[in-house]
Amino acid sequence: MFTIISIVILIMSVIIHELAHGFTANALGDPTARLSGRLTLNPIAHIDPVGSILVPLVTSLFGFTFGWAKPVPYNPYNIKNKRTGEFLIAAAGPASNLLIAIIFGTFIRFATAGATTITPFIEISSYIVVINIILAIFNLIPLPPLDGSKLLFAILPNQYGRTRMVLEAYAPVFVLIVVFFLWQIVAPVIPVLFRLLTGIGF
Question: Which residue of the set 18, 86, 123, 168 is catalytic?
Answer without folding.
Answer: 18
